Description:
By secondary structure, the chain is an all-alpha fold.
Amino acid sequence: MSGPVFAALSGDPVLAQHYADFRAKAEGALAPGLVAMIRQAVAQVHGLEAAAIDDTTLDHGTRVCIAYARRMPFEHTAISDAEAAAVVAHLGEARFVAFSVVTALADAECRAAMVDLPGLAGA
């Protein structure tokens, strides 16, 4: 496991392991390709990823998920019930929860990288 949040937690190995386990379980509930696209889409929203996802190659359900993930960092309060329902229809309720966790952690990790959280934490 790597990333700025994990690095910031390196001074507390137990907490770091709990974070790594939590992230792995959330990511493990989704297809690895979807997890990678979520992380890429969120990083792009934050300006940390230059490469855009080619939506034209994705099936409708995956496009819906990626559009939702792109909105989570700065527009989460504007996401409609219908948009959420579309993601649930594609993933199912349990995977929608995992999707939400993966997206939120990707957002947190981007923000942590932007402020050098490991440096702030003295890691």
